[in-house]
């Protein structure tokens, strides 16, 4: 193992070096993300309009484009210490296997029972719900990692937790479902017959495998029809990216500890929570002209909202009951193929990430599923972690960039987010190992119905 600069395999911060504030990149953005709109009036959503759906403090965070730093409440800091700071790992073994002069680092967020970065925001949202005196929360989950994280957080604060899980994941990942139930959550496959919007979607699309957009609609309906409940979301919203900034802040602090300057920062992109959290301090520096980085968002070719979507106002959910958000979108009616990276099967992208992309502060690429799993297995064999399919999108591009360095001889420093572990994704790994995995890339004609359904907002 190389020891130049004496950089350890794992860089850990001390507990007293952990960030005590979240960073709100919106405060430094020259072009702010467009506001959420009321679908009835097409006017920006107000605090009062959002209150029936979200916790009060979370609404304040959602609407605040100006406060750069938010103090992390002590109770949340204490909970974070169960699994944070998470390690920044120098991928010495992967570098050696690739025979590349590139230096590769990954921020590993899978070192908690939920298996992913999702717990960073789940505990914050549960804390604010408890502080407000609520009975419980409702949510959706794709791959199940968000639902798992939220069930853990609700258990900690003794809150009821109702999870609507995308039907294809509910069927493919029964063990993830059982972790949620172990932590006391109720789990319903979506779309379901338990809500009006679920029944409508099933009538229009009999036998559908579901989507995150469907599950969001059901969870919002459930929250707004139950006293003492609010809806919480694991990605996309600006408040979630704020909480997830803990990832990027720790990453930056760990790099700074050893005077390491990243050249390329890579994250997988579905709704934008991991990507937005990882890149926030780096893109903040870029906006302020303090440093320059190549920042790459990696999405599945089967659900390419950044690379092939349109930048427009759209519904965040399939049932069209949520506010309108301006984002790169494939249309709220787009139901992606049953891609195994369940956490990336969302039709739109965070309005913050969308604005950064539109301003050309970040770039985006889409990758095919079989190539992603090839990278996942290569990584698992040399670095000893079985990565989640979502995370493996970032691994694929990190490997590709490292191989480019091998060709050019450049010693670039590549940092990517390893968002979680893939131990509940063995159905997908099995399909890959058995040669049964296929790549689905929607045609332009496949995408057209989703675009045709975009709301008409001037």
UniProtKB/TrEMBL annotation:
EC numbers for this chain: 4.2.1.20
Catalytic activity from the UniProt record: (1S,2R)-1-C-(indol-3-yl)glycerol 3-phosphate + L-serine = D-glyceraldehyde 3-phosphate + L-tryptophan + H2O
Pfam families recorded: PALP
Superkingdom per UniProt: Bacteria
Protein keywords: Amino-acid biosynthesis, Aromatic amino acid biosynthesis, Lyase, Pyridoxal phosphate, Tryptophan biosynthesis
Pathway assignment: Amino-acid biosynthesis; L-tryptophan biosynthesis; L-tryptophan from chorismate: step 5/5
Lyase listed as a keyword: yes
Swiss-Prot/TrEMBL cofactor(s): pyridoxal 5'-phosphate
Chain ranges passing through the membrane: none
SUPFAM superfamilies, A to Z: Tryptophan synthase beta subunit-like PLP-dependent enzymes
Ranges for domain Tryptophan synthase beta chain-like PALP: 83-420
Keyword Cytoplasm: no
NCBIfam families attached to this UniProt entry: PRK12391.1, trpB_rel
Protein role: The beta subunit is responsible for the synthesis of L-tryptophan from indole and L-serine.
Assembly and interaction partners: Tetramer of two alpha and two beta chains.
Family: Belongs to the TrpB family.
PANTHER family in alphabetical order: TRYPTOPHAN SYNTHASE, TRYPTOPHAN SYNTHASE-RELATED
Name by which UniProt lists this protein: tryptophan synthase
Taxonomic path: Bacteria, Bacillati, Bacillota, Clostridia, Eubacteriales
């Amino acid at each position: 193992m190389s020891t130049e600069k004496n950089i350890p395999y794992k860089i850990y911060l001390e507990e007293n070096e952990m960030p005590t504030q979240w960073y709100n990149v919106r405060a430094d953005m020259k072009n702010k993300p467009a506001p959420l709109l009321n679908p009835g009036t097409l006017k920006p959503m107000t605090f009062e309009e959002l209150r029936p759906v979200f916790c009060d403090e979370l609404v304040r965070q959602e609407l605040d484009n100006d406060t750069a730093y938010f103090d992390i409440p002590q109770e949340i800091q204490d909970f974070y210490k169960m699994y944070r700071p998470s390690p920044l790992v120098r991928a010495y073994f992967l570098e050696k296997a690739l025979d590349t002069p590139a230096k590769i680092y990954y921020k590993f967020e899978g070192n908690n029972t939920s298996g992913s970065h999702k717990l960073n925001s789940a505990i914050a949202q549960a804390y604010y719900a408890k502080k407000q005196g609520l009975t419980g929360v409702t949510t959706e989950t794709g791959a199940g990692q968000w639902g798992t994280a939220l069930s853990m957080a609700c258990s900690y604060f003794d809150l009821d937790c109702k999870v609507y899980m995308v039907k294809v994941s509910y069927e493919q990942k029964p063990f993830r479902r059982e972790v949620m139930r172990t932590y006391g959550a109720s789990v319903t496959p979506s779309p379901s017959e338990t809500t009006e919007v679920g029944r409508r979607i099933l009538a229009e699309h009999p036998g559908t495998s579901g989507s995150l957009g469907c599950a969001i609609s059901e969870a919002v309906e459930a929250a707004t029809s139950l006293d003492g409940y609010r809806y919480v979301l694991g990605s996309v919203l600006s408040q979630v990216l704020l909480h997830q900034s803990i990832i990027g802040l720790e990453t930056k602090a760990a790099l700074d500890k050893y005077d390491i300057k990243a050249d390329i920062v890579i994250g997988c992109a579905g709704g934008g929570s991991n990507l937005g959290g990882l890149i926030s301090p780096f893109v903040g520096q870029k906006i302020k002209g303090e440093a320059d980085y190549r920042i790459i968002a990696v999405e599945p070719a089967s659900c390419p909202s950044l690379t092939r979507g349109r930048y427009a106002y759209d519904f965040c959910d399939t049932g069209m009951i949520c506010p309108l958000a301006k984002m790169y979108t494939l249309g709220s009616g787009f139901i992606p193929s049953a891609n195994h990276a369940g956490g990336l099967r969302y039709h739109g992208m965070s309005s913050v990430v969308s604005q950064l992309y539109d301003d050309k502060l970040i770039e985006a690429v889409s990758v095919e599923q079989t190539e992603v799993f090839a990278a996942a297995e290569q990584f698992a064999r040399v670095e000893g972690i079985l990565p989640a399919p979502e995370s493996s999108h970032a691994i694929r591009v990190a490997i590709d960039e490292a191989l480019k360095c091998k060709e050019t001889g450049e010693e670039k420093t590549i940092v990517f987010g390893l968002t979680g572990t893939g131990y509940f994704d063995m159905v997908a790994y099995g399909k890959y190992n058995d040669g049964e995995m296929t790549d689905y890339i929607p045609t332009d004609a496949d995408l057209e119905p989703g675009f045709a359904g975009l709301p008409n907002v001037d």
